[in-house]
Design a protein that fits this description.
The protein is 84% helix and 0% strand. With 373 residues, the chain is mostly helical. It has a single domain, classed as Growth Hormone, Chain: A (Up-down Bundle).
Length: 373
């Protein structure tokens, strides 16, 4: 996601496409991530986590290498769909494996550590994506995607052992319906999932419209990569603070605080541009606060949702991942479709609306936990 973001304007010019068509490179990727996780999560409850992860890494790597040779926006869009389907297996299995190995509080700590490690890649990818785009065109970003998938595949083959030791005996339509029904009946799961999906969706939406605002300020793709890299750096800091401080005070309280800080960050982002602060730092600073707050929210809401899934952890993580990507892809497409690439304030208004929903949602769990205490 972050690697290709600085290259979007160049893709539009090189392949002769519109901003809406280029936005589809993000949208279809997210849709494929969503659809794939719906299947992979439940299947892994029966087949195990390891074979699903290996399959996904293989598809991701191959589609990345093939995309180098795309000569039209339609072909590149197809390869992005395949990349999304491969990535879906890797993302959903990562969460499920952590849930398999730890109890609730330790899982939250481990998820925060994993999120910290995962955030290093977007930091590098944003900077590298901008530099690669100027040096080797958008095709170079596809090559890096192929290499990344290959690394995951090799490491999983050499190191990963199966972690799902309580597998469902068989998978059929009835068992699928039963598994999803059990998960969807949990109001706690739904609350955590909605909060998490809104927070993730906000980040993915920003990747779609921020490059255009930075470009209007005269920022090059390489400079954009550096400025926006501050957001995942802040995300790393948020995860570290969460791991060593907030988790011990309860994941519900940590998630509530993070959501409130997110709302402050997007309000600040709107205010800076509304009052004409047309320079990169005025965008980057609110984005840093957004990254910090996301680092507090994401791991806690992921663990809360998966734990609420009970014996259907694979189904729960797959459904959660699908919601994350669906919100990101759908909202991102809506924002661009309504003119968010040209009207930055309109795009940020969508983020404010999503942030209000996440605060309202997590308050349900927060009040319920305090009532129990």
């Amino acid at each position: 996601m972050t690697l290709i973001s600085p290259a979007l304007p160049l893709v539009m010019a090189d392949l002769g496409s519109s901003s809406a068509a280029v936005q589809m490179l993000l949208t279809v990727y997210l849709v494929a991530l969503a659809a794939g996780q719906l299947v992979y999560g439940t299947v892994s409850d029966s087949l195990g986590r390891r074979p699903i992860l290996l399959f996904g890494a293989l598809i991701y790597s191959l589609s990345g290498f093939i995309a180098i040779f795309a000569e039209s926006i339609e072909a590149l869009t197809l390869y992005r769909i395949l990349q999304g389907l491969g990535a879906a297996a890797c993302l959903s299995m990562g969460r499920a494996i952590i849930n398999d190995c730890f109890d609730r509080r330790d899982a939250a700590r481990s998820m925060a550590t994993a999120q910290t490690i995962m955030a290093i890649v977007p930091v590098l990818a944003l900077t590298l994506g901008g530099l690669l785009t100027e040096w080797g065109g958008w095709q170079s970003t596809m090559a890096i995607i192929g290499l990344a998938g290959l690394v995951v595949l090799v490491i999983a083959l050499l190191i990963l052992k199966e972690t799902n030791l309580r597998r469902v005996k068989s998978i059929n339509l009835a068992s699928l319906v039963s598994a999803y029904g059990a998960v969807l009946k949990s109001p706690i799961y739904l609350t955590y999932a909605l909060t998490n999906s809104m927070q993730i969706g906000m980040f993915f939406s920003m990747l779609g419209f921020l490059p255009y605002q930075y470009a209007r300020l005269g920022v090059s793709p390489a400079e954009f990569g550096i400025w926006f890299a501050l957001t995942p750096v802040s995300f790393i800091i948020g995860n570290i603070v969460n791991r060593y401080y907030f988790i011990d005070r309860g994941i519900e309280r940590a998630a509530m605080l993070g959501c409130l800080l997110t709302l402050v960050s997007v309000l600040a982002l709107y205010a800076t541009q509304f009052f004409g602060m047309a320079y990169p730092l005025a965008i980057a600073l609110p984005c840093c606060l957004f990254g910090l707050s996301n680092g507090i929210v994401i791991s806690n809401t992921v663990v809360g949702a998966i734990h609420a899934s009970g014996d259907h952890a694979g189904t729960g993580t797959g459904l959660l991942g699908a919601w994350q990507m669906a919100f990101g892809g759908f909202i991102g497409a809506v924002i661009i479709g309504l003119g968010g690439a040209e009207d930055f304030l309109l795009a940020v208004l969508f983020l404010i609306f999503m942030s209000v929903i996440s605060v309202t949602s997590i308050s349900y769990v927060y009040r319920g936990r305090n009532a129990l205490v």
